[in-house]
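Ticket opened by: R.M.
Priority: normal
Category: complex prediction / small molecule

The reporter submitted a protein together with zinc ion and asked that the result be attached to this ticket for the collaborator who will pick it up next week. Submitted input follows.
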Amino acid sequence: MAGSFFRVTCPDCENEQVVFGKAASEVNCAVCGTTLARPTGGDAEFAGEVVETVEAR
Ligand SMILES: [Zn+2]
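Result attached by the on-call engineer:
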């Protein structure tokens, strides 16, 4: 199964950003720099709220 992308809302500034579900490095909010996802070796752990799943094509 290919990885999916998730639309995550930043807990600090409510910016919505698309994050790869198996991110290999920390993903930071493009607006305020808060960590939105951190790698766990498998699926990333999201710090913000996942509002939508975006299937990879
Ligand atoms: Zn933010």
